[in-house]
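Table 4 source record.
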Amino acid sequence: MESRISIITLGVKDFDLSLRFYRDGLGFPTTAKEGDAIAFFQTLGTRLALYPLSRLAEDISPDVKQAAPGGFGGITLAYNARTKEEVGQVLALAERAGAKIVKPAHDTFWGGYGGYFSDLDGYYWEVAWGPMFSFDDRGALII
């Protein structure tokens, strides 16, 4: 596993309002528009993504969707793998290090392959590979 974070995803209550806040208010560059399923913002080093909170919780696990106050905070970290096989390797590495596998590697609804683990403090990490992912020479994700 390379020491990098590809994406920080914020689960947002009102996607279109949040998109306008980051895009129009803060000036973060994106090609996303109102009504899209997800928004990616180009930032230096790591990508910032917005995704509806309920759908982000549901993507992790049905149990997370039912989290009580003080549970899921709406933030995930993502490690985008270079190969489909690397997804399983990274999840196994995380589990050996003490992480809990929340969602084993599987084919995703968006055409990729991925899974989730939670670290020792309960922060959720998505490990994903997709045929649409590419990386620059430093290993940074190109979206």
